[in-house]
Amino acid sequence: MSSQAPTSIPQKLSPTDPSTVPNPLGDGKYIKSAGCLIIGDEVLNGKTKDTNSNFFAQFCFDLGIELKRIEVIADDEEEIVEAARRMTEKYDFVVTSGGIGPTHDDITYASLGSAFNLPLVHHPETLHRMMELSTPQRKEELKNATPAQKQARERMALFPTNSGSGSENVKSEVLFVDGDKWVPVVRLAGKLCVFPGIPSLFQQLLLSLTPYLPLPPASSKPFRHLIYTSKPESVIAPYLTELQARVKKEGIRVGSYPYLYSGVHVSLIGHDIERVRALGQEVVREVDGKVVSEGKLGSEGKEAKA
User: Which residues form the MoaB/Mog domain (predicted)?
Assistant: First the structure.
Protein backbone atom coordinates (compact mmCIF):
# COMPACT_ATOMS: atom_id res chain seq x y z
CA MET A 1 0.00 0.00 0.00
CA SER A 2 1.51 3.27 -1.09
CA SER A 3 1.44 6.23 1.24
CA GLN A 4 0.77 9.88 0.60
CA ALA A 5 3.75 12.19 0.23
CA PRO A 6 4.61 13.71 3.60
CA THR A 7 3.40 17.27 4.01
CA SER A 8 5.91 19.99 4.78
CA ILE A 9 6.22 20.65 8.49
CA PRO A 10 8.80 22.63 10.47
CA GLN A 11 12.17 20.98 10.82
CA LYS A 12 11.86 21.35 14.59
CA LEU A 13 9.24 18.73 15.40
CA SER A 14 7.19 20.41 18.08
CA PRO A 15 4.24 18.78 19.82
CA THR A 16 0.70 19.80 19.00
CA ASP A 17 -0.19 23.06 20.74
CA PRO A 18 -2.78 22.16 23.43
CA SER A 19 -4.35 25.63 23.11
CA THR A 20 -5.41 24.79 19.54
CA VAL A 21 -7.20 21.58 20.54
CA PRO A 22 -10.87 22.14 21.49
CA ASN A 23 -12.50 20.36 24.42
CA PRO A 24 -13.37 16.94 22.94
CA LEU A 25 -16.37 16.57 25.26
CA GLY A 26 -17.81 20.00 24.50
CA ASP A 27 -17.52 23.37 26.19
CA GLY A 28 -17.92 23.29 29.96
CA LYS A 29 -17.71 19.51 30.21
CA TYR A 30 -14.93 17.57 31.89
CA ILE A 31 -13.86 13.97 32.40
CA LYS A 32 -15.60 12.23 35.28
CA SER A 33 -15.25 8.54 34.42
CA ALA A 34 -12.68 6.41 32.63
CA GLY A 35 -12.10 2.93 31.25
CA CYS A 36 -8.96 1.01 30.29
CA LEU A 37 -8.75 -1.59 27.54
CA ILE A 38 -5.60 -3.74 27.46
CA ILE A 39 -5.27 -5.54 24.13
CA GLY A 40 -3.00 -8.50 23.48
CA ASP A 41 -2.84 -12.28 23.43
CA GLU A 42 0.57 -12.03 25.13
CA VAL A 43 -1.06 -10.56 28.25
CA LEU A 44 -3.74 -13.24 28.38
CA ASN A 45 -1.26 -16.11 27.95
CA GLY A 46 1.10 -14.77 30.61
CA LYS A 47 3.98 -13.93 28.28
CA THR A 48 3.71 -10.22 29.11
CA LYS A 49 2.83 -8.75 32.49
CA ASP A 50 0.46 -5.81 32.23
CA THR A 51 1.61 -2.76 34.19
CA ASN A 52 -0.10 -0.14 32.04
CA SER A 53 -3.51 -0.53 33.67
CA ASN A 54 -1.96 0.00 37.10
CA PHE A 55 -0.18 3.14 35.91
CA PHE A 56 -3.40 4.41 34.35
CA ALA A 57 -5.30 3.73 37.58
CA GLN A 58 -2.81 5.86 39.53
CA PHE A 59 -2.97 8.54 36.81
CA CYS A 60 -6.76 8.73 37.10
CA PHE A 61 -6.67 8.79 40.90
CA ASP A 62 -4.18 11.66 40.92
CA LEU A 63 -6.43 13.70 38.63
CA GLY A 64 -9.67 12.95 40.45
CA ILE A 65 -11.06 10.80 37.62
CA GLU A 66 -13.05 7.73 38.62
CA LEU A 67 -11.68 4.67 36.82
CA LYS A 68 -14.72 2.43 36.40
CA ARG A 69 -13.39 -0.53 34.45
CA ILE A 70 -10.24 -2.34 33.30
CA GLU A 71 -10.53 -5.09 30.68
CA VAL A 72 -7.94 -7.35 29.06
CA ILE A 73 -8.95 -8.78 25.69
CA ALA A 74 -7.37 -10.79 22.89
CA ASP A 75 -6.09 -9.59 19.53
CA ASP A 76 -9.53 -10.25 18.10
CA GLU A 77 -11.38 -7.72 15.96
CA GLU A 78 -14.87 -8.58 17.21
CA GLU A 79 -13.78 -8.24 20.84
CA ILE A 80 -11.99 -4.94 20.22
CA VAL A 81 -14.96 -3.51 18.31
CA GLU A 82 -17.46 -4.52 20.99
CA ALA A 83 -15.37 -3.31 23.92
CA ALA A 84 -14.41 -0.01 22.25
CA ARG A 85 -18.01 0.85 21.40
CA ARG A 86 -19.34 -0.12 24.82
CA MET A 87 -16.69 1.64 26.88
CA THR A 88 -16.74 4.80 24.77
CA GLU A 89 -20.51 4.95 25.17
CA LYS A 90 -20.31 4.60 28.97
CA TYR A 91 -17.20 6.57 29.95
CA ASP A 92 -15.76 10.02 29.30
CA PHE A 93 -12.16 8.89 28.79
CA VAL A 94 -11.03 5.50 27.47
CA VAL A 95 -7.50 4.33 26.72
CA THR A 96 -6.37 1.31 24.76
CA SER A 97 -2.92 -0.21 25.18
CA GLY A 98 -1.27 -2.53 22.69
CA GLY A 99 -1.69 -3.85 19.18
CA ILE A 100 -0.39 -0.89 17.13
CA GLY A 101 2.93 -2.31 15.89
CA PRO A 102 4.03 -3.44 12.41
CA THR A 103 3.15 -7.15 12.59
CA HIS A 104 0.12 -9.12 11.40
CA ASP A 105 -1.42 -9.40 14.88
CA ASP A 106 -1.30 -5.65 15.51
CA ILE A 107 -4.91 -5.02 14.58
CA THR A 108 -5.98 -2.30 17.01
CA TYR A 109 -6.16 0.57 14.49
CA ALA A 110 -8.01 -1.55 11.92
CA SER A 111 -10.43 -2.84 14.55
CA LEU A 112 -11.13 0.66 15.86
CA GLY A 113 -11.73 1.80 12.30
CA SER A 114 -14.41 -0.89 12.07
CA ALA A 115 -15.82 0.08 15.48
CA PHE A 116 -16.35 3.72 14.45
CA ASN A 117 -16.93 3.23 10.72
CA LEU A 118 -13.74 5.07 9.83
CA PRO A 119 -11.44 4.16 6.92
CA LEU A 120 -7.72 3.65 7.48
CA VAL A 121 -5.53 6.34 5.91
CA HIS A 122 -1.79 6.88 6.13
CA HIS A 123 -1.04 10.00 8.16
CA PRO A 124 1.60 12.07 6.30
CA GLU A 125 3.01 13.92 9.29
CA THR A 126 3.45 10.70 11.24
CA LEU A 127 5.36 9.18 8.32
CA HIS A 128 7.57 12.27 8.20
CA ARG A 129 8.26 12.22 11.93
CA MET A 130 8.90 8.48 11.81
CA MET A 131 11.86 9.17 9.55
CA GLU A 132 13.07 12.44 11.05
CA LEU A 133 13.11 11.23 14.65
CA SER A 134 14.87 7.94 13.89
CA THR A 135 18.55 7.39 14.66
CA PRO A 136 20.98 7.73 11.71
CA GLN A 137 21.41 3.95 11.64
CA ARG A 138 17.67 3.42 11.64
CA LYS A 139 17.21 5.99 8.87
CA GLU A 140 19.68 4.10 6.72
CA GLU A 141 17.84 0.84 7.39
CA LEU A 142 14.55 2.45 6.42
CA LYS A 143 16.00 3.82 3.18
CA ASN A 144 17.22 0.34 2.22
CA ALA A 145 14.08 -1.49 3.37
CA THR A 146 12.28 -3.82 0.99
CA PRO A 147 8.76 -2.85 -0.14
CA ALA A 148 7.30 -5.39 2.30
CA GLN A 149 9.38 -4.04 5.17
CA LYS A 150 8.40 -0.47 4.30
CA GLN A 151 4.74 -1.41 4.16
CA ALA A 152 4.98 -3.07 7.57
CA ARG A 153 6.66 0.00 9.03
CA GLU A 154 4.07 2.35 7.55
CA ARG A 155 1.22 0.31 9.07
CA MET A 156 2.04 2.15 12.28
CA ALA A 157 0.93 5.40 10.60
CA LEU A 158 -2.30 3.92 9.21
CA PHE A 159 -5.00 5.50 11.37
CA PRO A 160 -8.81 5.52 11.46
CA THR A 161 -9.55 8.83 9.75
CA ASN A 162 -12.59 10.96 9.01
CA SER A 163 -13.55 10.50 5.38
CA GLY A 164 -16.53 12.85 5.25
CA SER A 165 -18.72 9.97 4.20
CA GLY A 166 -20.73 8.17 6.84
CA SER A 167 -18.34 9.14 9.63
CA GLU A 168 -19.08 12.85 10.11
CA ASN A 169 -20.18 12.32 13.68
CA VAL A 170 -17.00 10.51 14.73
CA LYS A 171 -14.04 12.80 15.18
CA SER A 172 -10.53 11.50 14.61
CA GLU A 173 -7.57 13.44 16.03
CA VAL A 174 -3.83 12.81 15.76
CA LEU A 175 -2.09 14.48 18.71
CA PHE A 176 1.68 14.76 18.86
CA VAL A 177 1.89 15.19 22.61
CA ASP A 178 5.67 14.73 22.92
CA GLY A 179 8.08 16.49 20.58
CA ASP A 180 10.71 13.78 21.10
CA LYS A 181 8.41 10.94 20.01
CA TRP A 182 7.14 10.28 16.52
CA VAL A 183 4.32 8.12 17.90
CA PRO A 184 1.16 10.24 18.31
CA VAL A 185 -1.89 9.64 20.46
CA VAL A 186 -4.85 8.98 18.18
CA ARG A 187 -8.12 10.09 19.79
CA LEU A 188 -11.45 8.87 18.42
CA ALA A 189 -14.93 10.20 19.16
CA GLY A 190 -13.37 12.67 21.58
CA LYS A 191 -12.95 9.94 24.17
CA LEU A 192 -10.91 6.91 23.10
CA CYS A 193 -7.13 7.38 23.05
CA VAL A 194 -4.87 4.78 21.45
CA PHE A 195 -1.52 4.01 23.12
CA PRO A 196 1.32 1.56 22.45
CA GLY A 197 1.74 -1.34 24.84
CA ILE A 198 5.42 -0.71 25.67
CA PRO A 199 5.21 0.46 29.31
CA SER A 200 7.82 3.24 29.13
CA LEU A 201 6.23 4.68 25.98
CA PHE A 202 2.70 4.26 27.35
CA GLN A 203 3.65 6.18 30.49
CA GLN A 204 5.48 8.99 28.70
CA LEU A 205 2.68 9.57 26.20
CA LEU A 206 -0.06 9.36 28.83
CA LEU A 207 1.61 11.96 31.02
CA SER A 208 2.25 14.18 28.00
CA LEU A 209 -1.44 13.91 27.03
CA THR A 210 -2.55 15.60 30.26
CA PRO A 211 -2.68 19.18 28.83
CA TYR A 212 -5.07 17.95 26.11
CA LEU A 213 -7.63 16.54 28.55
CA PRO A 214 -10.62 18.40 30.00
CA LEU A 215 -9.73 17.55 33.59
CA PRO A 216 -12.03 17.81 36.61
CA PRO A 217 -11.76 21.10 38.53
CA ALA A 218 -10.30 20.83 42.01
CA SER A 219 -13.72 21.61 43.49
CA SER A 220 -15.19 18.46 41.92
CA LYS A 221 -12.71 16.07 43.49
CA PRO A 222 -14.10 14.04 46.39
CA PHE A 223 -12.47 14.06 49.80
CA ARG A 224 -10.97 10.90 51.31
CA HIS A 225 -10.30 9.93 54.90
CA LEU A 226 -8.02 6.91 55.38
CA ILE A 227 -7.96 5.18 58.75
CA TYR A 228 -5.74 2.33 59.90
CA THR A 229 -6.73 -0.26 62.47
CA SER A 230 -4.85 -3.30 63.69
CA LYS A 231 -8.12 -5.22 64.08
CA PRO A 232 -8.77 -7.98 61.52
CA GLU A 233 -11.26 -7.27 58.73
CA SER A 234 -13.69 -9.92 59.97
CA VAL A 235 -14.02 -8.17 63.32
CA ILE A 236 -14.86 -4.74 61.89
CA ALA A 237 -16.95 -6.01 58.96
CA PRO A 238 -20.37 -5.84 60.75
CA TYR A 239 -19.81 -2.22 61.75
CA LEU A 240 -18.61 -1.19 58.28
CA THR A 241 -21.60 -2.92 56.67
CA GLU A 242 -23.97 -0.96 58.92
CA LEU A 243 -22.05 2.27 58.28
CA GLN A 244 -22.19 1.91 54.49
CA ALA A 245 -25.95 1.26 54.60
CA ARG A 246 -26.38 4.35 56.78
CA VAL A 247 -24.37 6.80 54.64
CA LYS A 248 -24.94 5.44 51.14
CA LYS A 249 -27.81 7.88 50.53
CA GLU A 250 -25.38 10.72 51.29
CA GLY A 251 -23.10 9.63 48.45
CA ILE A 252 -20.34 8.50 50.81
CA ARG A 253 -18.45 5.30 50.01
CA VAL A 254 -16.93 3.06 52.66
CA GLY A 255 -14.14 0.64 51.77
CA SER A 256 -11.83 -1.67 53.68
CA TYR A 257 -8.48 -2.98 52.47
CA PRO A 258 -6.24 -5.45 54.34
CA TYR A 259 -2.85 -3.84 54.96
CA LEU A 260 0.19 -6.11 54.57
CA TYR A 261 -1.47 -8.88 56.56
CA SER A 262 -1.37 -6.75 59.69
CA GLY A 263 -4.52 -4.71 59.99
CA VAL A 264 -6.90 -2.88 57.72
CA HIS A 265 -7.20 0.48 55.97
CA VAL A 266 -10.74 1.89 56.10
CA SER A 267 -11.50 4.45 53.39
CA LEU A 268 -14.27 7.06 53.48
CA ILE A 269 -14.87 9.01 50.25
CA GLY A 270 -17.39 11.81 49.73
CA HIS A 271 -17.82 15.43 48.66
CA ASP A 272 -18.98 16.85 52.00
CA ILE A 273 -15.61 17.36 53.70
CA GLU A 274 -16.95 18.09 57.18
CA ARG A 275 -19.28 15.10 57.07
CA VAL A 276 -16.49 12.76 55.94
CA ARG A 277 -14.24 14.06 58.71
CA ALA A 278 -16.97 13.57 61.31
CA LEU A 279 -17.55 10.02 60.13
CA GLY A 280 -13.78 9.49 60.18
CA GLN A 281 -13.70 10.28 63.88
CA GLU A 282 -16.57 7.87 64.45
CA VAL A 283 -14.67 5.14 62.60
CA VAL A 284 -11.52 5.86 64.62
CA ARG A 285 -13.51 5.28 67.83
CA GLU A 286 -15.38 2.20 66.61
CA VAL A 287 -12.38 0.32 65.20
CA ASP A 288 -9.77 1.67 67.60
CA GLY A 289 -7.86 3.18 64.70
CA LYS A 290 -5.99 6.28 63.61
CA VAL A 291 -6.16 8.62 60.61
CA VAL A 292 -3.19 8.06 58.31
CA SER A 293 -4.18 10.26 55.36
CA GLU A 294 -6.83 12.75 54.31
CA GLY A 295 -7.43 15.19 51.50
CA LYS A 296 -8.87 15.64 48.03
CA LEU A 297 -8.34 12.60 45.81
CA GLY A 298 -4.99 12.90 44.12
CA SER A 299 -3.71 15.60 46.46
CA GLU A 300 -3.53 13.80 49.78
CA GLY A 301 -0.39 13.94 51.85
CA LYS A 302 1.91 10.95 51.94
CA GLU A 303 0.30 8.22 53.97
CA ALA A 304 1.87 7.55 57.32
CA LYS A 305 3.17 4.09 58.06
CA ALA A 306 0.64 2.10 60.04
Answer: 35-216
